[in-house]
Target: Energy-coupling factor ABC transporter permease
Amino acid sequence: MHVPDGFINAPLSAATGVLAAGAVAVSLRGARRELAGGPAGPGGEPGGERTAPLAGLVAAFIFAVQMLNFPVAAGTSGHLLGGALAAILVGPCTGILCVSVVLLMQGILFADGGLTALGVNITDMAVVTTVVAYGVFRGLVKVLPRGRRSITGAAFVAALLSVPAAAVAFTLIYALGGTTDVALGKVATAMIGVHVLIGIGEAVITALTVGAVLAVRPDLVHGARDLTRPRLKLRVDGDLVDAPAPAPEPVAAAPRASRRALWITGLVTSLVLAGFVSFYASANPDGLEKVAADHGIDRAAEEHASADSPLADYGVKDVSDARLSGGLAGVIGVGATVVTGSAVFWVLRRRRASEAS
Model:
């Protein structure tokens, strides 16, 4: 759903740029609290020591999985947006920053998503998806039975709804500042319809990833920090009654070594997905590209400012072998994203620590 240059006029592009900048500024403050939160690890290890590295890894993983377009309908594909996954794993504010880092890397290095449309893309793909997904997730967690299955189920529904929400947001933005004269009703119907299907893929990926992290390091899942043990039953005069509710207990932290193992496993997985599996991704246009082509929106598309980048279109310039070119570009992208994301979150964690001292 990366919006290219030219789809949205200059005034609205500037307005969404201001909105996106404000959202990122608020998220920077909120992320400092999220990265410092969470239960202490073994030996009193601060929560930020564990969650800050995970945030950089989440950004790299989202970058990698976004390269894996999957078919959703005849001639159309979809890919992960990542807002729900990031929000549930590392928190909504940190999640907005994760997706924003990914969009920045894609726009600058790979000419994916217009630079003048960066505000539109951050607003739509980072802010809207994260806010909608986390709101749905928290609402479901409050009413569902406490447990890991509920966390995974809530993640599935939240991710599913976040994608058509982004489609609605794009339609509204286009209604206000679109550069072509098209029937907005048809565009809205097409965008929402195809992105409901894409949302199913997003939900599956999100639920599987959250479930995998819950299985090995539940203490690292931001959305599971309020998880408590099931209410015990006592038999009194032959009847079962609820035992007094225990104080909420965070999910027990796993040994420090498993954090390193999880980080390494996640990074290797991201590298394999971007460097190898991405070659087999669907070549069909994604939901927005398909709708834009069908309804003439793409007539106003402009050439990307980074079209001559050595990594434009996810290939390495002057490398003739398509498999090698795409694989190298994916590996470089994962590396650049994990370094940039980790640096951002490390600085935020350090600033929070210095304020607390």
About this structure: The longest strand covers residues 70-73.
